[in-house]
Amino acid sequence: MLNIIMFGPPGAGKGTQSEKLMSEYNLTYISTGELLREEIKQETEIGKKVKEGIEGGGLADDETIVKLINKAIKAHQGSEGFLFDGFPRTYVQAYILDGLFLRIHHKITRIFILELPDEICKQRLLQRAKEQDRKDDKEAVIKKRLQEYHQKTLPLLDFYKNTGLLTRINASGTSEEIFSRIQHYINEDIRKRSINVVMFGHPGAGMTTQATRLAEELDLKSISTREILQKEVKANTPLGKQIQPYMEKGLLLPDEIVIRLIEKELLETNGNGRGYIFKGYPRTLVQAYILDGILKKKGLGITCVINLQVNYIELMKRLDERSRTNKKMPYDRTAATIVARLEEHEQHSRGVLDYYREHNQVIDVDGLGNIDEVYQRILEPVTRASRNLR
Fold first, then answer.
1. How many domains would you assign to the chain?
2. What pTM value is reported for the model?
3. For residues 17 and 20, what is the distance between their CA atoms, to the nearest angstrom?
4. Residues 29-43: pLDDT tens digits?
5. Could you tell me where the beta strands, DSSP code E, fall in 32-80?
6. Which CATH number do you get for residue 305?
7. Measured in whole angstroms, how far is the alpha carbon of residue 213 from the centre of its chain?
8. Are residues 249 and 330 in the same domain?
């Protein structure tokens, strides 16, 4: 989840840049100015209370602000992120925002400071007053608002100075140029985030093909239980000999065996890539809990679960075709063994998907069509889910 604070003097272009950020990253815009103007427009008790002060260039009191911010956040809890304009403005409000975020397990991604000389800000605001008939954009009011910004808001930056979140942006130039400067840092933040994906679907749904492409594009390490198990069988290890009968029938292995192998694989690939993509695991509800536990030990979690949806007729056709290639699986021998494998998957998969759906992590994807079409249906929601990390 992207949570951005936008600082800058009146007239620096915060509104314009905020609109671009909202459109590009699907953020919910929270502007104290907009919230207060709406209260005034609706002639609410809060609106009546603050109207006189705002039109004189002053700031609303902290109690009023926290009520409005809290109300706005609660109204958009399903948002992919928040963009704050004009909040926080004081040390007190900074602590308020920290408290609000702590309660909903969010954190600030980055704080942008648009920098522009006061004289240019004043010229922009006077021009806006003519174009939009803004009564609060009179020269005396503008001067007071700029003074408020320098005296009260700028010192607030000390609150965040050791967080590594502050980013100063040159606010001169075209709106596109300014946005490009901002976007550079946001995309950098997104690329740093760990992504851990479960590729889910029936045998024949195309999981291997799509998992391989996604791993390459997003720099993920592919964890395939089948490949791990095949490696043990091929090496003819004692464990491989235990595994072989299960693999030939397409049956589930004891969890104790699989856990150790996955932990070993994660240990060997630690630090390689941006995260992991799991294919063929988890296959049961118990394994879903186990995977959460394994990742938690590494300080990680599941980003999303891609559920490739392909109808039975198409699955039977694909598996039958695969049985005549060097990619065939032991259970591809006959129609009966294929059906048995599909039924076995169906029996165990429901609990797994229900588990992840409870956590709003499942992305259902139509698995029909050519490889490129299916991949594009996968890539967009996975990219969006990676932004939505808290």
1. 2
2. 0.67
3. 5
4. 998 878 888 888 888
5. none
6. 3.40.50.300
7. 20
8. yes
